[in-house]
């Protein structure tokens, strides 16, 4: 007869082990902060992909001895290294910009508690401030106005989504603001159908949602033929209304994490058209930041060329000649000037970089307007892969 296993006892052992793991994670974090300090002294870049690869290979080997498979070990340590790089970057940025180092920050974002912008704001500042004073806004214009007028320190704005593309309204507002882009964050968007009470999909008559999630979940929503869609100002607004109504025939499109703040539960998970659904957010402030040279930086430019033939090509050729990588090109109409376009260009370079400064001054000869929207650390940490022969 096999030995009787007490579930509660085993769970207690797992909990204790997980607590020990947390202590080890914290110790590792403290060590990586010392690494950052030593890199400041030696002026070395934060990222060292060769070291990451050697570390991963040795951990995969050790993991195999312990019966852990290579993919499991790789994904755990890629996430630990990502955290380490982001923490080190945040530390260097605090040294380069001592005035942004404050315990409490105020942030304006779209919607209330639980909106994707709320989640992005909390994630971004989790390694930078002790406390966030939240300012939920009803529109993107309202967010910019709050920062411009000094009512808040920062504004968090979604700029593009992997499924529905660029957020035109935000691009258009950037044409007229004096604010600077000082940071970015990519937030996974995991749309679920949430309800306030226990129910089933066949009982749902109305779905509340914001326009962006509606576009991103169009395949799922188109299949729900008899369900009415109620457009809301934001995801948080939609969740608050559904929580208030407490009905078994009403659901809302939102994140499970955000829904928890309103006691909502997931009826259906992963309802977005694309499984890999991410939104990139930008953070704006009144004052531009300096990006430490050991950190990969992105610079955002905005320019117009009038209707001069070939002027945009000339600008892009300048970037090519200077060896500067362009990672985004977007165009938007200019209000009041039919058929003229405003171009938004993101390049992977630090504004302090001489080549970029030269490129901007040559580009100015081909444009009738050019402005730097901001220079900020690249927050996307591409994982270091291990050669398949090592797996
Ligand atoms: O060893 C370093 O240089 C570190 O910065 C630490 C670390 C890590 O967390 O292991 C993080 C970033 C580097 O790309 C390599 C490794």
From TrEMBL:
Query: What SUPFAM superfamilies does UniProt report for this protein, alphabetically?
Result: ACT-like, Chorismate mutase II, Periplasmic binding protein-like II
Positions the record marks as coiled coil are none
> What keywords sit in the KW lines?
Amino-acid biosynthesis, Aromatic amino acid biosynthesis, Cytoplasm, Isomerase, Lyase, Multifunctional enzyme, Phenylalanine biosynthesis
Q: Where is the ACT domain?
A: 300-377
Q: Tell me its EC number(s), please.
A: 4.2.1.51, 5.4.99.5
Q: Which GO terms describe its cellular component?
A: cytoplasm
Q: What metabolic or biological pathway is this protein involved in?
A: Amino-acid biosynthesis; L-phenylalanine biosynthesis; phenylpyruvate from prephenate: step 1/1; Metabolic intermediate biosynthesis; prephenate biosynthesis; prephenate from chorismate: step 1/1
The Chorismate mutase domain is annotated at 1-92
Instruction: Tell me where in or outside the cell this protein is found.
Output: Cytoplasm
| Domain Prephenate dehydratase: start-end pairs | 106-286
The function of this protein is: Catalyzes the Claisen rearrangement of chorismate to prephenate and the decarboxylation/dehydration of prephenate to phenylpyruvate.
Query: What is the name of this protein?
Result: Bifunctional chorismate mutase/prephenate dehydratase
